[in-house]
Amino acid sequence: MFGKPIITVNNLFKSYENVSVLENINFKIYEGEIVCIAGGSGCGKSTLLRQIIGLEEPTSGEIIIDDEYLFPNSEQKKSKIRQKFGVMFQLGGLIASMTLSENIELPLKSFTKLSINQIKEITKIKLTSVGLNNFEDYYPAEISGGMKKRAAISRAMALDPEILFLDEPSSGLDPISSTSLDKLIRELNSALHTTMVIITHDLSSIFAIADRVILLDKSVRGILEIGSPKELLLSKNKLVTNFFNRIRNEVNNEK
Predict the structure, then answer these.
(1) Widest distance between CA atoms in the chain
(2) Cβ neighbours for 150, distance < 8 A, ≥ 6 positions apart
């Protein structure tokens, strides 16, 4: 069983220049669960992520994080709430001129008053937790794509966030690296009980890691259905079935 709701979205609408992208979005995400926000291209996955993490303001609606309003609220209070978040963006966002340890040290130096020795110890622990011990002095260009993703997750976890947001973590990875990353995400969730919200269109990852799925579709400008992967696979909604049947087609095409 999961804990209390840690993210609540009520009646969220988002438009750009009077063009509606998301309409009537309502859901709750509970402490400790892994929720995948999924859907085809252009369905609003990234737009929804930007609203939840406070990079953009919804046109209307409410976003509540751990019983506090992220929207509507003052910028000062929103900034404080965002300290509960760790975010890994799609391209990783590692600073190329810094080593892996320097990348992870950056948020610790910026947002804590820890000593240099404490920061270095935490950095070592964070890299070890994602299987990158002994890679502290490597630069992003010197490691593989899968290792870059792990390092980016490690940096997102540097401040021990209550909620970890991962934007397309398996994007650009080969199947073996993707499977390995899925396993890591599950292990971290199990060990740390961190709530995880993952934007993805990768069906293999959805079945490997998701407790629940929020499935979006651009034809409805919002949520088609919410449920476990198995529940959605058995859905009677044709749009939902078509989305999940893609995995069978992808597997058949690879044979």
Answers:
(1) 57
(2) 130, 131, 132, 181, 184
SS3 114: coil
> Is the N-terminal amide bond of 107 cis, ω within 30° of 0?
no
Return d(Cα 221, Cα 188) in angstroms, integer. 33
- Other C-beta atoms closer than 10 Å to the C-beta of 88 total 23
Give the tokens for residue 128.
Answer: 């070890």
> Where along the chain do its domains lie?
5-254
Edge-first strand order for the sheet with 68-71 is: 19-30, 5-16, 60-65, 68-71
Q: Is the pTM of this model over 0.85?
A: yes
What is the per-residue pLDDT across 201-245, written as a single tens digit (0 to 9) for each? 888 999 999 999 999 999 999 999 999 999 999 999 999 988 887
CA dist 164 and 161 (Å) reads 6
Return the CATH number of the domain spanning residue range 5-254: 3.40.50.300
